[in-house]
Design a protein that fits this description.
293 residues, alpha/beta, Aldehyde Dehydrogenase, Chain A, domain 2, 2 domains, three-stranded mixed β-sheet, 9 helices, binds NADPH dihydro-nicotinamide-adenine-dinucleotide phosphate, binds 3-phosphoglyceric acid, NADP-dependent glyceraldehyde-3-phosphate dehydrogenase, Ald_DH/histidinol_DH
């Protein structure tokens, strides 16, 4: 990547890529007095860096618990397709993955049935075989995900598929009847496990979304655009998608999270502004000039 910058004409030394274990060089780099700003994409590490950064300007793109709110007037085929795409693509390992489905009770059975039908067809295995669901990034990540599933199961949630794991490979799992006392309602699995919370009012959905530590993105499925805009305004997240799964979008599009999901906003213009500092120089002339009004 740095070579590409050099080929594009960047002077040598203007951009550097320093490699090494984050735990060894991370603090040295982020707390070095020569650092003018820090931009970081990740999860808890970003929160730790922010706490140590003091007066250094920050741009943080961190975790998410993106909610998919499905109303009873939604196109349920469209909603189910987006729940699957949003929840399970890259095995759920995207900050913008759908991480909780908040569906009106009246259409919940239909949504769960439609999603289950699609989950049943997903291919599971190694990435070399182009499978849709592949192993999660580390064993500790798989253990964490398993902990969330077992907590929900013990507290009475319904596993729609058999829970299956081989090493870091976890089979896609929809967990229905999740309630707010379960960890899965709030924590980010970052894997192919998707909780469904059945709601009885739009307000309940908005409340759950805004009570989360995270506030990255969210989405709403309804045919009523006025209602969608009203809910979008009430959702305290960086972005809301109407009738599509959350997604970062093209790089010039503003991308930001609230609360533990981030600080600042990415996007070409926003990032340039964040990485530059306004500087004023005032020339005081010996005699008044016309520009001095
Ligand atoms: N909002 C966004 O744009 C995105 C957010 N995410 C979020 O990222 C999370 C998953 O990513 P994950 O990698 O687990 O996140 P982590 O917060 O665990 O970050 C891990 C990274 O931080 C490095 N690191 C470790 N210690 C330090 C330190 N002291 N200073 C600087 N860097 C350090 C690690 O390096 P090493 O490996 O060498 O130890 C590794 O590269 C999820 O929450 C996900 O939602 C993911 C994608 C996009
Ligand atoms: O790495 C991520 O998870 C991305 O920032 C999200 O991008 P996407 O929504 O386009 O996958």
């Amino acid at each position: 990547m740095v070579h590409c910058f050099h080929l594009a004409g960047f002077p040598k030394g203007l951009i550097s890529c320093v490699t090494g274990k984050g735990s060894e060089i991370g603090d040295f780099l982020t707390m070095h007095p020569g650092i003018g700003c820090i931009t970081f994409t990740g999860g808890d590490t970003g929160i730790a860096i922010s706490k140590k950064a003091g007066m250094i300007p920050l741009q943080m793109e961190l975790g998410g618990k993106d909610a998919c709110i499905i109303l009873d007037d939604a196109d349920l085929d469209l909603a189910a397709a987006n729940v699957v795409k949003g929840g399970f693509s890259y095995s759920g390992q995207r900050c913008t993955a759908v991480k909780v489905v908040l569906v009106m009770e009246s259409v919940a059975d239909t949504i769960v049935e439609k999603v289950n039908a699609k989950v049943a067809k997903m291919t599971v295995g190694p990435p070399e075989e182009n499978c849709e669901i592949t192993p999660v990034v580390t064993e500790s990540s798989a253990n964490f995900i398993e902990g969330l599933v077992m907590d929900a199961k013990q507290k009475g949630a319904k596993l729609c598929q058999e829970y299956k794991r081989e090493g870091n490979l976890i089979w896609p799992l929809l967990v229905d009847h999740v309630r707010p006392d379960m960890r899965l309602a709030w924590e980010e699995p970052f894997g192919p496990v998707l909780p469904v919370i059945r709601i009885n009012s739009v307000e309940e959905g908005i409340h759950h979304c805004n009570a989360s530590n995270f506030g990255l993105q969210g989405c709403i499925f309804t045919k009523d655009i006025n209602k969608a805009i009203m809910i979008s305004d009430a959702m305290e997240t960086g972005t809301v998608q109407i009738n599509s799964a959350p997604a970062r979008g093209p790089d010039h599009f503003p991308f930001q999270g609230l609360r533990d999901s981030g600080i600042g906003s990415q996007g070409i213009t926003n990032s340039i502004l964040m990485m530059t500092k306004v500087k004023s120089t005032v020339i005081n002339l010996p005699t008044p000039s016309f520009t001095m009004g």
